[in-house]
Amino acid sequence: GNPYSLGHTVTMGIVSALGRANVGIADYEDFIQTDAAINPGNSGGPLVNIKGELIGINTAIFSRTGGYQGIGFAVPSNMAGSVMNQLITEGKVTRGWLGVTIQNLTPELAGEFGLNKSTGALVTDIFQGSPAEKAGLKRGDVIVELNVKKIKNVETLRNIVARSKIGNKVKLKILRDGKTSFLHATITEFPRDIVRALPGESEENLSAEENALAGFSVMNLTRNIAKQLGLSRNEKGIVIVKVDPYSAAGDAGLKKGDVIQEINKKKIKNLSDFNKILPGLRDGDTVLLFVNRNGNKFYITLKVYS
């Protein structure tokens, strides 16, 4: 590399981890983590093995000071090579798209879906007209394999799909209601127009119905509130307007502005639906919530305490 303009500098270290994701550097992350010193000016330089073979492109460091602290990241050479080839042949980079919103499984979520392992990618939403919709994927499905490749988590699936060639047919192994099924989908190009900015929280003070069991206050989702939250006017559910940070709801990560649309896989269109479910909850129960947060949909588990 060329750290601090000191050309042809070589540093040495070990590979600390492979497949590092959730670093917050890029949309698609599959980094090699190394403790070889990477400083300003090293980015774009090669990461080589003991044989001198290129294995990655130095990209970033994790640092609280701006200098080297023993944690560096490199893009794997196969990923960089794929991007290079697309730029040479097509003049642009294309990403494969399945058309699903997914989240990682926690042990608690796995238990609620009747699964023994918390591996795979949990489907939380399907884009209309997408390959996923045409293949028959549904919310609540867990994708565990794609073309016989094991899906460990969200990052694994996202990277495999993104690298897939446009038009490729893929075989999905899914778990639905605890049973194994196989579906086939055709990968299409990622549509750039689906990326959108998320609106901020509304500061409007709203009256609410208290839900003492879970430590949060809710009210019906009106069209005006839906608009403030950046949601479709036709969305149904109950919106959280206050959360006790020391309650089970606060511990679970629920926030003001979250819209609850399902409880234990039962649709919640309004407070009436919500109130019908409350009497059936018992102290110590684990409740499965389906939440819409500014258009991002996900599942969350909540422990009930009286």
Describe the structure.
By secondary structure, the protein is of the alpha+beta class. It has 3 domains: 3-90, Beta Barrel (Thrombin, subunit H), CATH 2.40.10; 96-193, Roll (Pdz3 Domain), CATH 2.30.42; 209-303, Pdz3 Domain (Roll). The chain has helices spanning 77-90, 107-112, 131-135, 154-163, 223-228, 248-252, 271-277, and strands at 15-20, 31-34, 46-48, 54-61, 72-76, 96-97, 100-104, 121-126, 142-146, 149-150, 169-176, 179-186, 188-189, 209-211, 216-220, 238-243, 259-263, 266-267, 286-293, 296-303. The strands form 4 sheets. Strands 14, 15, 16, 17, 18, 19 and 20 form a 7-stranded antiparallel sheet that branches. Strands 7, 8, 9, 10, 11 and 12 form a 6-stranded antiparallel sheet that branches. Strands 1-2-5-4-3 form a 5-stranded antiparallel sheet. A hairpin with a 2-residue loop joins strand 11 (169-176) and strand 12 (179-186). It starts with 14 loop residues before the first strand and ends with a strand. Mean pLDDT is 82; it is low at 195-213.
